[in-house]
Specification:
Its main location: membrane. It is a single chain. The chain is mostly helical and 321 residues long. The protein is built from 12 helices and 3 strands; from the N terminus they run H-E-H-H-E-H-H-H-E-H-H-H-H-H-H. Helix 3 runs parallel beside helix 6, helix 4 packs antiparallel against helix 6 and helix 4 runs parallel beside helix 8. The N terminus is likely disordered.
Length: 321
């Protein structure tokens, strides 16, 4: 019995999307396309911001790091999910499971702080344009970015450490397409109450703190926009803020409903649809939401495309040096 329990704690089977075996080819093609577009969009945005000196401003530094974290989120989940569509055993080891959740937790936590930083940056730019360079210095920008990564890593370490205290003896099948904490709690033969409490406290604190900054920033922005006399300027500002706020609403809404909703550990049927939004849809949409309607990004892309390859390599070399 001890040997069986030990084997259950070291390997799991991901059974997400197995309810529709006749659709596995279609699902593979759809998710593979999403993965390619997500990686090209986010990494392309990171390279563009890195290469174009005019984009070395707080807003685009935050945006570049957000794109990097979205790429990290996609890389931690999608390759294994795609492999499992045509894998016979769908096995994932305990350590792979912990690594997958670690990078997901890092990406999502850092995203929360980066989105809050971006909202604050827009607040300063629109509500205090004359004081922008003093209120939003590059030093403050770097400090906010570093804090996002530090908190993301600390949150991930805490959650993974708490997961390692559990032992899994009920089943070795995870009803999900990646290793998330809630499905693992359901498999635990140890009471996961402490884990549930800690994820509620830490995840709740991170999300409430950052979403409060976002809401206050955007309410202040809206107040300033409605005071504008120019209808054209008001329309452009509202259009930009609306697209940004839509992305933020989907992101925070899915995270809150996943980890903070009552009885979230018991409601397994809601895990996969909600997880699809914050692990696949948001990383796919963010590069387009923040870039396609941004004239500076579009102009930077045009300038890069007009340059000769040897000039681009020379510029990359000068930036790195």
């Amino acid at each position: 019995m001890t040997e069986d329990n030990h084997s259950l704690t070291t390997e799991f089977i991901l059974i997400g999307f197995t309810d529709h075996p006749h659709m596995k080819t279609l699902l593979f093609v759809v998710f593979f396309a999403i993965y390619l577009i997500t990686m090209m969009g986010n990494l392309g945005l990171v390279v563009l911001i890195f290469m174009e000196r005019r984009l070395h401003t707080p807003m685009y530094i935050f945006l570049g790091n957000l794109a990097l974290m979205d790429s990290c989120c996609s890389c931690s989940i999608t390759p294994k999910m795609l492999q499992n569509f045509f894998s016979k055993d769908r096995m994932i080891s305990l350590y792979e499971c912990m690594a997958q959740f670690y990078f997901l937790c890092l990406a999502e936590t850092a995203d929360c702080f980066l989105l809050a930083a971006m909202a604050y940056d827009r607040y300063v730019a629109i509500c205090h344009p004359l004081q922008y360079h003093t209120m939003m210095s590059k030093q403050l920008c770097m400090q906010m970015t570093i804090v996002a990564y530090i908190v993301g890593n600390l949150h991930s370490i805490i959650q993974v450490t708490l997961l390692l205290r559990l032992s899994f003896c009920r089943s070795h099948q995870i009803n999900h397409f990646f290793c998330d904490v809630l499905p693992l709690y359901r498999l635990s033969c140890v009471d996961p109450y402490i884990n549930e409490l800690m994820i509620f406290i830490f995840s709740g604190s991170v999300q409430i703190f950052t979403i409060t900054i976002v809401i206050i920033s955007y309410l202040s922005i809206l107040y300033t926009i409605f005071k504008m006399k120019s209808k054209e300027g008001r329309g452009k500002a509202l259009s930009t803020c609306a697209s940004h706020f839509l992305s933020i609403s989907i992101f925070y809404g899915s995270l809150l409903s996943m980890y903070i909703r009552p009885s979230s550990v018991q409601e397994a049927d809601k895990d996969i649809p909600i997880a699809i939004f914050y692990t696949l849809v948001i990383p796919l949409l963010n590069p387009f939401i923040y870039s396609l309607r941004n004239k500076e990004i579009i102009n930077a892309m045009k300038r890069i495309m007009k340059r000769k390859p040897h000039n681009i390599l020379k510029q990359i070399s000068s930036v790195t040096n």
